[in-house]
Amino acid sequence: MRTGVRGQSGKDFIAALVLAGLVFVPEVALGVQRLKFKPGFNLFSPQQDVQVGQEASADVDKQLPLVTDPEVVRYVNDLGRRLATFAPNNKPDYAWTFKVVNSADINAFALPGGFIYVNRGAIEAAEDEAEIAGVIAHEAGHVVMRHGTNQATKAMLAQAPLAILGGILGQSSSLTAQLAQMGIGFGVNSLMLKNSRSAESQADEVGTYVLYHAGYDPKAMAQFFQIIEKKYPQRTIQFFSDHPNPENRVKDVDALIPELGPPQEGKTDSPQFAAVKKRLTSMPPPRKGKPAPPATAGSASPPPPPSSRMTRFQGKGFSVNHPDNWQVQKSEDAVALSTLLENDSPLPGQKEKDRLVTLRERDSLLSLIFIAPEASSDAYKPTFDAMLQSLELQ
């Protein structure tokens, strides 16, 4: 017995099926496409994010007092991992490990690759589960937008303007040791953990997106940040130092919510959160002590002025002069380069100027990126011009 679709050609039927499939595209996927959650330029792979985060986490654990109560740790990890399943750009390699710091300060931070730390003070200050879920979702936003390694990338390029991108990081057994040689790290008080306002806005967008799709009130995150800033000014100094408050935070979040999907009455609280908060507040108060010292490999400082003495670098298919006090990172199998269009400097409170030069030689491309802090760009220009004039393709 022959079956078919009457009055419709095969091609028309297939087209109808395709259209029907588009109708049922999950709202989550459409939301990601609309909001265009795209991480910035990065020399690291997601797997290297995890390696860097894991190595940094081992050091951070030695420096910070951690809450080890099994019920508290289990609750925060269960909540965090559930939220992470809704994060855009999530990678299967990400570790998604959540720890509670035994500190009364209201703070939280994220290491690359999914290692998130939430202060006890943040949990105690939250009025309901939606608020602490918003804090965790915001930090997950820093992870999936890869803000930490994006900052490290810019710091590396600031120190090695002649970096040949693609494979710039060698297959070292310890990426943190390799980065430490450049003065870059992710330890406690590291500049790599201090975010720009644009990074905060991105993390807010991701956090709002995650809350909405996880079934929470998506306004909770921005409201929590607004409340704690006014209610606990002394206990949030470090938080707003590491997480500068974007302008119009609540207004921007409110404007984003309609783009996420149809209105819904989000969850705000749970008995589990109330039990964990009660458990924390009944524990002895955190011991007061000296703040952890800055990690030795956790800062980025302005690069030294370029030397007037030039030396010749021989690459694959080209050669170029560069100041002899600049370090060259090279890869003989470099791939095509992406254009860097960012203007946040790894130096606090500064902008940067990026100069991209791309040359086509037969079937290949050669790109050079010259980067300098905005305040020093004029001083670097003669050196960059001399380097460009010395370039020879072979």
Features:
394 residues; alpha+beta; three-stranded mixed beta sheet; 8 strands; disordered N terminus
Quick overview of this protein structure:
The chain is of the alpha+beta class and 394 residues long.
Please tell me about this protein's structure.
It contains 14 helices and eight strands. The chain is α+β, with helices and mostly antiparallel strands. Strands 1-3-2 form a three-stranded mixed beta sheet. A three-stranded antiparallel beta sheet has the order 4-5-8. It has a two-stranded antiparallel ribbon with strand order 6-7. α4 crosses α6 and α9 crosses α12. The longest helix is centred in the first third of the chain and has 18 residues. It is elongated.
Poorly predicted segments: 1-31, 163-168, 290-301, 329-335, 337-342
Distance between the termini: 70 Å
Strand content: 5-15%
Identify the overall geometry: elongated
Q: Helix- and strand-based class?
A: alpha+beta
Helix count equals 14
DSSP E strands, number: 8
Report the major sheet. Answer: 3 strands, mixed
- Helical amount: 40-55%
Query: What is the radius of gyration?
Result: 24 Å
